[in-house]
Amino acid sequence: MIQEPVQVEYSFGQSQLVEGMAGTSDLLIRFRLPRTGQTRRPLNLSLVIDRSGSMAGSPLKHAIRAAQAVVDGLGPEDTLSVVVYDDVVQTLIAPTRVTDRAALRAQVAGVRAGGLTNLSGGWLRGVELVAANAGPEVVSRVLLLTDGQANVGVSDTNVLTKTAAQKAEAGVGTTTLGFGSGFNEDLLIGMARAAGGNFYFIQSADDAADVFGIELQTLKAVAAQNLTVTLSPAPGVSVADVLSLHRRGADSLTLDLGDVYEDEDKLLGLSLNLPALSAGTHPLLGLTYRADAVRDGAIETLTGSVDVQAVAAPLGPDLRSDVGVTLDLARLRIARAKERAVDLADTGDAAGAESTLRTLVGELRSAGLHEHFEIAEEIEQLEHYAARIASRRLDGDSRKELRDQSFQGRARSRADLLGRGVTVDAAALALPVVTDSAGGVELLCVRDGGRLRVKVEADGMGGGLNVQFPRALRAEGARYVVDGLETSADGSFYRVTGDIRRVVRPGESDPLAGVRGGSGASHAFSAPRASKPPVTLADLESTDTVGSGVLVQCLKDGSKLRARVVSDGFHPDWNMRFPRGLREDGTLYVVDVVNTAPDGKSYIASGTIRRFVQPS
């Protein structure tokens, strides 16, 4: 081990604590590794891609393109393997050095959608391939992408999370990427947390390449791993809460904070219970840390210690605040509150969940933090989700957004990962619609890195400034007219004043036409109406999109050809009434509607049947 001056800074957000006042105070500790000029460690990656039926169409096409972008971002010193899975797990590319990108891209391009979702089998295969080349001289990671529920193989969240932790202890971390609205976010976040990896919520197909790019950039920037912090509170001091994401070590005061990245501070936020302090300087917390970093081609363990002290003094004009620290602590508190709100809502305590979010909004406003745009945006998010929880409308997509925002806010200090979410609320659809913006200021809602931002479209109004706008009314591509705008206290952004209407001019298409607000995809059921199909498979028209239809797969089962539903939300083991003349082993079909048969344990294909062809 070597003593390495890892840059460690700490602050309570203000220059001094108030003398004689016991209570809870937030502390921010910032870890940073200075650039050393060391060559980055090679990457040892396995891309594990869900190719089950629910990925058919645009999702799989964009996943393939994202995987190809990862190939392009790797070098000859890096090792890559690719695993694809549905019911069956296939090693598409065995571990290989990335010396022939064109050949690897071509292999990935050949992936086609299949059947069900053996998530555990695919992930464990990827772990096995990475483990074969793991070691301290490389960064080893499995990137697991799925859009659905594990319905084949091991599916128990606790088992998979525990296994992910064990694999991480053996040197193989896991990053999980949830695609669309059908995946189990608790499973993917649990695996990522246990394995020391990252989690990403990919809400729209064309975000996939950006998210894969962020993860690849992150892995290339690993400066140290296994940052572990041990806390030793002074007498009378206790740790009330840990705001930052961490894994618990040997005891509650040993925190595993995971990887440290170049050009990205690792933040540890703590809430401390403090006694009433007399005037003067007081030692409050001892802290020791260790981390593994590359030095001169070898792994060295870096160690150090810090004594956290604070000055107590009477409240007076000498009290100064550090705005940057205050904002960082606010972001951590917001992320922690979102996690608590989801936990409370899950137990049926909607009132407690709503109160958690609204109480924090009041505290942020009282502290004047709503005058900072990013916090103002977070306040809009908190109020939006509080309203959804209160009205019992925290649907699957909204819950995923909250869980993702909490994870990113507690784990990372990257601004481009905070506040992501593009779901459309029913309130946006209920806005009055006008045909022009006369008499008001026109605004446009755009998607910016997974977030919905509102910009000024009116001439002469400072179009470069952001607009604080109700989250519940945002929808990508929508135009609005508002009575007016007012600037924030520092003039850095606008706030909306007066009434809000949506603008759809004559002859223009409405970007919200056909959009359902506030809910994820659902399966439509109607009265049984058997399809009237063409006579043979050759007569079927083809499609490369699933849309609102249901994906069905035909497979050989002994001497019979059996049809089964492979879209999420259906029983994959139920039999299906499906025209025999259309059945072909391995073929995928898109059916308008799948109904439950009168026996209550089988399905009927209804409406038009089309042959599915994966888009290129």
Protein described:
- This protein has eleven helices and 29 strands.
- The chain is α/β, with parallel strands linked by helices and 616 residues long.
- Strands 1, 3, 11, 13, 14, 16 and 17 form a seven-stranded mixed sheet that branches. Strands 7-6-5-8-9-10 form a six-stranded mixed sheet, sandwiched between helices.
- A hairpin with a 2-residue loop joins strand 25 and strand 26 (560-565).
- Helix 1 packs parallel to helix 6, helix 7 (323-346) runs antiparallel to helix 8 and helix 8 packs antiparallel against helix 9 (373-390).
- Residues 519-529 have low confidence and may be disordered.
Question: How is this structure best summarized?
Answer:
With about 625 residues, the chain is an alpha/beta fold. The protein is about 25% helix and about 35% strand.
Structural class: alpha/beta
Average pLDDT across residues? 90
Helical amount:
25-40%
Number of beta strands: 29
**Beta-strand level of the residues, as a percent range?**
25-35%
Whole-Å distance between the termini?
A: 52 Å
Low-confidence stretches: 519-529
**Shape type:** globular
* Biggest sheet record: 7 strands, mixed
What layout of secondary structure does this protein have?
Blueprint: E1 2-3, E2 7-11, E3 17-18, E4 23-32, E5 43-50, H1 58-73, E6 79-85, E7 89-97, H2 101-109, H3 119-131, E8 139-146, H4 157-169, E9 173-179, H5 185-195, E10 199-202, H6 208-220, E11 222-233, E12 238-242, E13 247-248, E14 254-261, E15 266-274, E16 280-295, E17 298-313, H7 323-346, H8 350-366, H9 373-390, H10 396-411, H11 426-429, E18 433-434, E19 441-448, E20 451-456, E21 466-468, E22 479-487, E23 493-503, E24 542-543, E25 550-557, E26 560-565, E27 575-577, E28 588-596, E29 602-612
Parallel strand pairs: 1-17, 3-17, 5-6, 5-8, 8-9, 9-10, 18-23, 21-23, 24-29, 27-29
Antiparallel strand pairs: 2-4, 4-15, 6-7, 11-14, 11-16, 12-15, 13-14, 16-17, 19-20, 19-22, 22-23, 25-26, 25-28, 28-29
Helix pairs in contact: 1-2, 1-6, 4-5, 7-8, 7-9, 7-10, 8-9
